[in-house]
Amino acid sequence: MSASSPRRFPALYEYFCLYFGLFALGVLCLGWSLVAAILHPFMPDGGASRLGRRAITSVFRIYLFLLGALGACRFDISELDALKDQGPMILAPNHPCLLDAVMVIARLPNVACIMKASLMKNLFLGGGARLARYIPNGRPLQMVYAACEALAGGGQLLMFPEGTRTVRAPVNEITPSVALIARRAKVPVQTIIIETDSDYLSKGWPLFRRPPMPIHYRVRLGRRFDPPANATTFCRELEAYFAEELAHARFVPPQFATARPSAAQSH
Length: 267
What we know:
By secondary structure, the protein is α/β, with parallel strands linked by helices.
């Protein structure tokens, strides 16, 4: 957890922030999803992906701005800006909560995202995701081909090497997909370290459950790995790297705080 424990907001205000934030995100996502669904049949791939990705970036920026303005969340995510013009690469964050993708995409407007196949049909997200040419994970081989095509087109690819939100401290076992795509596309893997002091929207957290506020999020750039020669070796190395970085994180979710090594153990 953070070195200083900030004062909690009154429960009534926390409920207001929670529901207002979800309502605002729902309105923004639904509005753009409907517009995107109408535009989708009439736009070529290149123009559709550029417009779709920039629009989603704008939606997520507005949402994070609202949470910050309310004081519900405090975001330290500006390090991501350094990646904007650095060319094709895989962006590989750890995955403590559902806001992880929102924070990354809010700062980087040319990112293709690998997402759950079921979300491509979601009323709030599906239209925008299809227009942005996001990549469903339902068929692994097609996912790999589509990811390599997106990278070859000059974009960056966001994928979570854990495959799902973290359930095992400090990081889940790394799946081989990130190594396979990086090797096939011949692009580096840029790790991103996401820290938070809350369990909000972690695996199993109900959408409408109120968390203690304010919540802190810190996103920083980690090591950039060259395209791997061996997927198994790379996955072990990546998992060890995340574990080492998260052992020294400024913010730790309460559910994992007891698993964090003490200062004496980490040196």
